[in-house]
Amino acid sequence: MNRSERIEKSSGKGTGSLSLALAKGKLLTDTMEILESAGYRFPDFSPGSRKLTFLSEDGSLEILMVRGSDVLSYVEYGGAHMGVVGLDLILEEDRPVLEPLDLKIGFCRLVVAAPLGQEGPPPLGRPIRVATKYPRLAEKYYVSRGVSVEILKLHGSLELAPKVGLSDRIVDLVATGKTIRENHLEIVDEILASTGRIVVSRAAWPQRNQAIRSFLERIVPHVPKDPVISS
Ligand SMILES: Nc1ncnc2c1ncn2[C@@H]1O[C@H](COP(=O)(O)OP(=O)(O)OP(=O)(O)O)[C@@H](O)[C@H]1O
Ligand SMILES: O=P(O)(O)OC[C@H]1O[C@H](OP(=O)(O)OP(=O)(O)O)[C@H](O)[C@@H]1O
């Protein structure tokens, strides 16, 4: 079954509920607040639930709970019509999905950080070592500056890497700045600012166009005016 057929199957040939892939991460609470202000009710939803699907009371929207790092795969390959994901991941993974709406939630910045007092030029004679969850964006940043770089991909607790000698720098997300401060690091440069976005499958867009447009029109008035930090 190809991508288009999968979308058609999951969407009941252009009818039925729209699906929205969400992760139990930092974007969840604010996304649910926007959906609820727009009038969607999910009677059995609770963040602690082990259920993976939640249908709205009016039957028009179904939430699919997935890992944050899987939202784009669900949307790209037809497991969900839409998803909510940070711009940081969209740019890192460079997937062929549509990105019609900035939800202005989950504001954070992807930065380069170094141990306090070591923000000067990188060591001579070897590539600069950078630990990150964002290997493509980090590599692009250094290559575009003509700096030789060795990337170490980690999945969390990035701030530990320079402390234990694993790296000279980290490329990581900063929201409040608390983690950077508490681990004696400082920001050297900013790569990008990110907020949560609605992403839409390229196959679903033509097949469910009216339903997706109606969904977007319904939530737009409830999107914060300015970007907000999420916890
Ligand atoms: N302080 C923050 N740290 C990390 N991400 C943040 C922060 N603030 C906002 N975000 C946004 O939230 C998104 C989801 O981050 P989160 O750490 O919750 O990951 P996740 O959804 O739990 O993913 P996974 O479990 O697969 O690692 C990020 O991609 C980013 O856009
Ligand atoms: O500026 P702050 O508000 O302190 O937020 C930034 C921190 O939050 C994220 O980590 P997360 O909580 O996802 O944990 P992790 O280390 O397991 O990735 C991010 O990777 C930073 O470490």
From TrEMBL:
Keywords assigned: Amino-acid biosynthesis, ATP-binding, Cytoplasm, Glycosyltransferase, Histidine biosynthesis, Nucleotide-binding, Transferase
Gene3D superfamilies membership: Periplasmic binding protein-like II
Main enzyme class: transferase
Gene Ontology molecular functions: ATP binding; ATP phosphoribosyltransferase activity
Catalytic activity: 1-(5-phospho-beta-D-ribosyl)-ATP + diphosphate = 5-phospho-alpha-D-ribose 1-diphosphate + ATP
Domain ATP phosphoribosyltransferase catalytic: 67-219
Cellular compartment(s): Cytoplasm
GO cellular component: cytoplasm
EC number(s) reported in the record: 2.4.2.17
Pfam family of the protein (one): HisG
Pathway(s) this gene product operates in, as recorded in its UniProt entry: Amino-acid biosynthesis; L-histidine biosynthesis; L-histidine from 5-phospho-alpha-D-ribose 1-diphosphate: step 1/9
One GO term of the biological process aspect: L-histidine biosynthetic process
UniProt cross-references to InterPro entries, sorted A to Z: ATP_PRibTrfase_cat, ATP_PRibTrfase_CS, ATP_PRibTrfase_HisG, ATP_PRibTrfase_HisG_short
Domain remark text: Lacks the C-terminal regulatory region which is replaced by HisZ.
Annotated PANTHER family: ATP PHOSPHORIBOSYLTRANSFERASE, ATP PHOSPHORIBOSYLTRANSFERASE ATP-PRTASE
Family (UniProt): Belongs to the ATP phosphoribosyltransferase family. Short subfamily.
NCBIfam families named among the record's database cross-references: hisG
Function, as annotated: Catalyzes the condensation of ATP and 5-phosphoribose 1-diphosphate to form N'-(5'-phosphoribosyl)-ATP (PR-ATP). Has a crucial role in the pathway because the rate of histidine biosynthesis seems to be controlled primarily by regulation of HisG enzymatic activity.
Xref: HAMAP family: HisG_Short (MF_01018)
Summary of subunit composition and partner proteins: Heteromultimer composed of HisG and HisZ subunits.
Record protein name field: ATP phosphoribosyltransferase
